[in-house]
Amino acid sequence: MRSTFLLTVAAASLALAAASGQAQAQSVTGTVQVNGTVANRCLFVTNNVVLDLGELSLQTGDVSAIGRLDAPKLTSRTATLNGWCNGVSATMAVEAQPIFNTSFTSAAPTGFERRVDYTATATASPAGGSVSASDSTLASGAGPASTTGLFASDIVVSFANAATPAGGRLVSGSYSGSVAVTLAPAT
Questions:
Q1: Which among 3, 29, 33, 145 would be 20 to 30 A from 49, CA to CA?
Q2: Is the pLDDT of residue 19 over 70?
Q3: Which secondary-structure segment (H or E) carries 9?
Q4: Helix count (H) and strand count (E) of the chain?
């Protein structure tokens, strides 16, 4: 009888062990939440281009025009930057600086000029359509900014309205100016 009792206790123990093994075999899931951020930013891929216009004055044609600004030398040219912005409220602004004679820095005598003015326009191509921003060298500071939003494209800078202040002949020397295109992420 004692052996029957021991067998019954052993069988009950095996049954309990099997039942607890089944409970341990159930699946449970833990979760790892992954978070991050991306800051608003803009970046130029190509941020510096040199536009060499060569001789700025007319060399041939009407004798009274020779030596004066050859305006199409500037207005027929473009320069291409490349950039992107990853924010929906990003903007682009342009600031044009006059082209000055850097060799002759004194006031130009009557009938001569050492400054060339113009309007610069930068055009980017977001998916929603082209966006442009402009500035003239006749007013100080940058022109009004335009909203580009998300974009990655070439930014073509074109020139218009090239002129000297009084239409005089250009003083000989080296001339230099610049156009700053500013991409600004939303703040």
A1: 145
A2: no
A3: helix 2-24
A4: 2, 10
